[in-house]
Amino acid sequence: MTPSAVVTGIGVTAPNGLGTKDYWAATLDGTSGIGRLTRFDPSGYPAQLAGEVPGFVAKEHLPSRLLPQTDHMTRLALVTADWALADAGVKPDQLDGYDMSVVTASSAGGFEFGERELQALWSKGSKYVSAYQSFAWFYAVNTGQISIRNGMQGPSAALVSDHAGGLDAIGQARRQIRKGTPLAVTGGVDGSLSSYGWISHLSSGQISTATDPDRAYLPFDASASGYVPGEGGALFVLEDEAAARQRGAEIYGRIAGYASTFDPRPGTGRPPALKRAITLALDDAGVTPGDVDVVFADAVAVPELDRQEADAINEVFGPRGVPVTAPKTMTGRLYAGAAPLDVAAALLAIRDSVLPPTVHSDPYPDYQLDLVTGTRGGPVRTALVVARGHGGFNSAVVVRSAR
Amino acid sequence: MPEKFTIEDLKSILRECAGEDEGVDLDSHILDTEFEELGYESLAIFETTSRIEREYGISLGDDALNEASTPRALLDIVNARLLSVA
To answer: The Carrier domain covers which part of the protein (chain B) (predicted)?
Structure first.
């Protein structure tokens, strides 16, 4: 029998809450963390709103040795991993290093660090560039730093597929569990809210230029006009179910299904491959659409992409056939951290029998979605998380109660 | 031009550009302790020597990195270079 992969620990750093408890309380309460950028002066830019993680002081959580060599998002990731491990009751120094993998996703690496060092290079010269630039801005840096900090030497990886990456990382971690690695730290914590990173976000043409935080990010609304970028995400301790049960671990749920697909080349007339990612993930989990209690949507808030997502969901579940939600309306879209944060919300929804809301959006009737616009009670056993990445990536994960 | 590069100067640069390992007390007798034992890998030493080069306007070359395995050895190299520049 194929080993089953279960989540035994959750760590969260999100714009509407530092730590799982704060994030979940804010989310159920409908409290948004979106506001005007403070990490740099956004005055000269067309878009000025973002989701920044509040109250994070790196030196309160990390040794001074790590500070000169890490980007802000890596510091968030290291602390998020610490919290996930503590939540799981796992002490890495008591385990064999080769029994632990790290698989994270990233969309831009340590962009803020890289920006600072490139400024030093071009304004002062190569002698002024930090030696740590050699790895601090890499896509793989979070995987590497989490691995070093916790002595995790099992098969590890970094996945780069924009917003879909967080699910691809979880899928890859599950693969390692099935191949026999007992434990993996996986998910994604991302962020590039620096001026250079901001320009890169703007180049997508999908960023909301609204100035009212309550009107800026409105997926599935007739007024949708792009999204708000954010930082943060979630990391998990994923374990082989038999091993987790043997040590008496508390289990949040099972990563029951995963699939990823790639869109056809533009101009071929063939449909987007999102629906196929959803059906493949459901098949992989051995569930039918009727088993799914809630869908966590990708929710780009770009009309054409919202339409494609609504169509894919309706083709699988039927019009208004399943509750759909986007708690990321309270955080902005976190790139590689976005879908892992949705997986965290899905696991907590299962634990607490509650559906977190989509805030501010007034559902456009044409999409025929049952959008969860207020916190809704009800048993949750099975949740689907959907994510798409710029350039054609589609991924889906099915999370199920392990009870 | 500073006359002499002291252990205090080195400690302050180490703290600033590489941090301080939790299990190590830089204020104890460290002159002859290997950098590796103090928790500094080659990249930390690379970062430290380039900071010294910038602040003191000297060039240490790759030899400094290869030969200076302890604070005392690095101090000697830096001070010899400061003398030859002076």
So the answer is: 4-82
